[in-house]
Prior knowledge:
two-stranded antiparallel sheet
Amino acid sequence: xxxxxxxxxxxxxxxxxxxxxxxxxxxxxxxxxxxxxxxxxxxxxxxxxxxxxxxxxxxxxxxxxxxxxxxxxxxxxxxxxxxxxxxxxxxxxxxxxxxxxxxxxxxxxxxxxxxxxxxxxxxxxxxxxxxxxxxxxxxxxxxxxxxxxxxxxxxxxxxxxxxxxxxxxxxxxxxxxxxxxxxxxxxxxxxxxxxxxxxxxxxxxxxxxxxxxxxxxxxxxxxxxxxxxxxxxxxxxxxxxxxxxxxxxxxxxxxxxxx
Length: 259
Ligand code: MN
């Protein structure tokens, strides 16, 4: 039996068939999970805690996908109108839905792989901070929003040795794509930055083994390995590591935590 991987969708209201807020998932995420040996299932748009708890209880992993910007007041006390105007926000229910998914998945020590927006939202969920507008709040020499070249490695990251990310990639550097407007500022307590761009922007995080050793498999990345996995083996190995952790958790996974 292949592990079941919950996939958080984007939300779109488009066309004749979907005038209501409807889910949309880039095929590359689903195909990357399938190639790595998992069964991906896209979730509906709902932040109902009971529905989310039941979905997580029946699954073996959670994949958080990319998307639009995160509501800044989720991690900042106040935001100027000018700063807010730089944002293109996602559907508000998507924020609350994914925050609930993150909390429930971590509570059950279920493997979590968080990509781009997901990488940022996990940091918010655990009490970290974001750059709301990376170009104005942290100007640097690296171009982080290169949508036209989203299927290419456009900048490198330097990887911390002795990390899951380094073991999966198999080296100290990786070429990545970069299509983000926001970014992690201060990693949340319990998280460790394991890869940074040359300007210092956090491009991947894991649990800090010194403070959070028993929270289950977790990797977050600011880039989009699902777009590079078909051509670059190191990116495919991130999905393989995630799905392997999902599979490993199937027989002995904690099914009824006490809290
Ligand atoms: Mn980047």
